[in-house]
Design brief:
Helix content: 40-55%
Largest sheet: 3 strands, antiparallel
Radius of gyration: 17 Å
Low-confidence stretches: none
Mean pLDDT: 94
Order of helices and strands: HHHEHHEEHHH
Number of helices: 8
Distance between the termini: 35 Å
Number of strands: 3
Length: 164
């Protein structure tokens, strides 16, 4: 899997300028049916993709934890939110709660998430390729194509299906 991820990083670097240009056009003139198109591309890709074979997102990046996430996960552990924060989180430069370290503390050796049922919103929504008003998250998507093979494939399919 490491070879695949190294290849992904290289391909993402090679496509970066092309993707950036595409997203710039997308922001200026988003198709009326963009959300519908993206939902279809997202669904089709995740019918083929098994995240458990990769889990690169969990291994290399940490999600933001909202206050609701903190409350929900702390309750799951039967901890006070402040205790959960002290044990697992830190405040980053943008004043958001993030994991103290990566890979994710809750990721098992089998790539399963030990808190899957109560995982943070950012994890549930990753790689955000089915988000409404997709054109507004182009910077995030440019980062995610280098992390997630499915996001890379979705962007490549999107460039083929949306012509300017």
């Amino acid at each position: 899997m490491d070879e695949i991820l190294e290849g992904l990083l290289q391909k993402a670097k090679e496509k970066h300028a092309e993707n950036k240009k595409f997203f710039s056009k997308l922001k200026q003139r988003p198709p009326k049916d963009l959300d519908y198109v993206m939902q279809g591309l997202h669904d089709a890709e995740f019918e083929r993709t098994d995240c458990l074979t990769c889990a690169n997102c969990c291994k290399t990046t940490g999600p933001l934890f909202t206050n609701a996430d903190v409350e929900r996960i702390a309750k799951h552990f039967r901890m006070k939110p402040s205790q959960f924060i002290d044990t697992y989180l830190r405040v980053d430069e943008e004043n958001d709660y993030v994991l103290q370290s990566v890979p994710c503390t809750f990721l098992g050796a089998d790539n399963y998430c030990s808190i899957y049922e109560v995982r943070p919103k950012a994890c549930r929504e990753f790689p955000h390729t089915d988000r409404k008003k997709f054109q507004q998250i182009s910077n995030l998507t440019l980062k995610n194509v280098a992390i997630c093979p499915a996001a890379f494939n979705i962007v490549e399919a999107m460039k083929k299906s949306i012509k300017f």
